[in-house]
Amino acid sequence: MQSEAIVDWPAFARARAQLGAEFVRIVGYFREDGAKSVRAIEAAMRANDPVALVMPAHTLKGEAAQFGAMPLSMLAELIEMTARRCIETHDGPNELIEDVVRLRPLFEATMALFDRELNPLRTRAGGFGRRVA
C-alpha cells in the first residue's frame, strides 16, 4: 500500500501547521494512545466483548483522523460501529475478527510513515549536503 493510501499528507501537513512546535510531542501521544487502543481492541476481541471494543475504537478513530490517517480511522470506525450494533442486537463481535487482525499492521504502517516524515535527517529535495547553485 502506498503512503498516500495510508496517510492523507495534506491533512497531516494541516495538523502539523495547526499544532506547531507541539506536533511531534502530540504524535508521540498518538503513538502511545493508539498502541493502547489497538491492544484494548485485540483484548476485547479475544474476550468476545463488543462493549469493550467501542471506546478504544472510538478513540483511535478520532485521533487517527486528526493526523490524516484515514484508512486507520475508517477501520476503527467500522469496528466501533459494528460493535455498537452487536451490543444492540446482543450478538458477539465475531464478524470483526478479520478487521481486528488488519488493525495492528495498519497502525504500525501508519506510524512508520509518520516516523519517516518526522525524521529530521530524511532526504529532502535540495537538502543536506547538496550545493545550491
Automatic annotation (TrEMBL):
<feature type="modified residue" description="Phosphohistidine">
    <location>
        <position position="58"/>
    </location>
</feature>
<dbReference type="GO" id="GO:0000160">
    <property type="term" value="P:phosphorelay signal transduction system"/>
</dbReference>
<dbReference type="Pfam" id="PF01627">
    <property type="entry name" value="Hpt"/>
</dbReference>
<feature type="domain" description="HPt">
    <location>
        <begin position="19"/>
        <end position="121"/>
    </location>
</feature>
<keyword id="KW-0597">Phosphoprotein</keyword>
<dbReference type="InterPro" id="IPR008207">
    <property type="entry name" value="Sig_transdc_His_kin_Hpt_dom"/>
</dbReference>
<dbReference type="GO" id="GO:0004672">
    <property type="term" value="F:protein kinase activity"/>
</dbReference>
<dbReference type="InterPro" id="IPR036641">
    <property type="entry name" value="HPT_dom_sf"/>
</dbReference>
<protein>
    <submittedName>
        <fullName>HPt (Histidine-containing phosphotransfer) domain-containing protein</fullName>
    </submittedName>
</protein>
<keyword id="KW-0902">Two-component regulatory system</keyword>
